[in-house]
Write a structure and sequence with these properties.
seven-stranded mixed β-sheet; mainly beta; elongated; four-stranded antiparallel β-sheet
């Protein structure tokens, strides 16, 4: 059983920073890609950033220069450092991982962590 657990969300003022963490646990053979999506009320879930096992990153245009994704392969953990936060960044942030277990390859999701940017 694979589990992804996020932490680090909360309430922050515009211009502030937050750091999200997500750890994957269970019978994992290899994690290919880890990433973060977000979903604001009434909107679709969109990719924020992703990172491969080799460290190649990809960012949504709206967060380039403000957010940084990183990964600790030894800990099966991905981080999202969010700086210069704006009210429009308010959303439920989900961690995701494409990984291989002994049985299969699949996409897994965390339960989400709320980020609210407000004064």
């Amino acid at each position: 059983q694979v589990r992804l657990v996020e932490s680090g969300g909360g309430l922050v003022q515009p211009g502030g920073s937050l750091r999200l963490s997500c750890s994957a646990s269970g019978s994992i053979s290899e994690i290919y890609v880890m990433g973060w999506y977000r979903q604001a009320p009434g909107k679709q879930r969109d990719l924020v950033a992703s990172i491969t096992g080799g460290g190649t990153t990809n960012y949504a245009d709206s967060v380039k220069g403000r957010f940084t994704i990183s990964r600790d392969n030894a800990k099966n953990t991905v981080y999202l450092q969010m700086d210069s936060l704006k009210p429009e960044d308010t959303a439920l942030f989900y961690c995701t991982a494409k990984l291989r277990t002994a049985a299969s390859i699949g996409d897994y999701w965390g339960q989400g962590t709320q980020v609210t940017v407000s004064s």
